[in-house]
Structures are given as C-alpha cells and as structure tokens.
Amino acid sequence: MKTGQPNHRLTAACAIAREAGKAALRHFRNRPVALQLDFKGHQDYLAATDADVEELIRLRLAESFPEDTFFGEEGGGEISDRVWIVDPVDGTANFMRGIPSFCISIAFVREGRTEVGVIYDPLLDELFAAARGSGATRDGVPIQVSGLADIRHATVEAGWSTRLPLQGYIEMLGRLTARGAGIRRGGSGALALAYVAAGRVDGYCELHMNAWDALAGLILIEEAGGWTNDFLAGAGLREGNPILGCTPELRDVLTEITGIG
Known about the structure:
The protein has 261 residues and is of the alpha+beta class. It has eight helices and 15 strands.
C-alpha cells in the first residue's frame, strides 16, 4: 500500500476499537466494589467483559468485512489468509482489580503478514494505529521509537508468561538488571508494545506471548521505526512465540541478553 492511500481496514479497526473501548470502560466503572475474582488458570483471570467486548468486535468486523475471518482470545475462531486477530481486553488482571491500565488490541493479518494494528486505551482515550507502509500514529499524530542506544539508560518492559517456567523469566530479569537496564511491568503487553512505538519505553520482551497480544503492537513498533523479531515464524500465529521489540540501536544487546532474535 502506498503512503496516503486510504486503508479501509485501518479506518474500520480504529472506529471499532473506540466503540469496544467505551463498552469495556462502562464495565470497568460499573464493576462491583467487592468483586469476586474468578480464574481460568494460574494467574489467568476470567472476566465476562472480555467475552462481551470480543463479541462486539467480531460482529462489527463481520459487518464490514464478511470475507475476512476472525480469531479472538476468548472465543477462538477461524484462521485464514485474511484474518483479524483480537484481544478484547489486554490487561484483564488490571481490569479486574481496578488498576487503570488495559487496552483493546486489533490486528489484521494477510497471508502471514500483519497489515494493520490498532491499540486503544479507553481510560486515557489514546488510539495507537498503524498500517503497513504508512507509519504509526497516536491520535492521528505520527510517533516514533525513542532511538535510545545505551542499555544503561534504557527502560525495558519484561512480560511474564505462566506458560513457561518462572526461572527463565527471573534469569532474564537478572541479566537485564546486571547490564544496567531499568525494568518495569505494567500488566498489559499490548499496551507496553504501543509504548515502545511511542518512545515511552525503549524495549519490550517476553519469553512467550500469544498472537492476539502481540501483533498490533509489533506493527506499531515497525512502522514507528523500531525493530522486532520474527514473531510469526513457525506456528507463531496459532501458538505464540517469544517476542522482542525495541529501538534498532538496542537490538544487538537485547537479543544477546534475552536470547530472543
């Protein structure tokens, strides 16, 4: 796609993300004070909001693009050569506990390549959006990665996955800290990737991440001038993969430290 050419999928994804975000925000503000926490696995929260928001997104995308398929975190779906990959609420643990850090993540993948990515933070009303070859924006304003090159000055978000042994995560944190990086973990991997694209943090790494959490943020970073590993290699779309996104200047040191390349 040439720069400046209208991208109807990007336009639709932005509108749908905003609508979904408003729905999630209503649930967030109206949740009971004494909330009963439910889990579907180890540190894996179960929230009715996720399913409701995912169904809204699925219906809106089907109305606009009936020829595309849909695959969401909550309800699954069908993966084809043209598929929407969706996390209706990334940061469910934050959402459930009343912590104001979560987002809606929508990506479109054509023939194994992510073409569109949208991440919407309804609490801050920030919309991060990117289309292949057209750059990345926050609320319509172009964004770019920080360009920071010195790991001793860098802030890196390190996500933790319950799908892998904890020891690997602890060891990676130790290596990052030993090299002088500042470490944070905000509880929403998708939002962290958007922050890399916007230059708010300098890198994001996780030893395993699912596609619905990763894809929108990865294209944001790429279109904002950053570097990402080949997340869709092998069975990444269906089964997830390690993930690393950062400024190009930090690529070599972070691939060495994390082992993700």
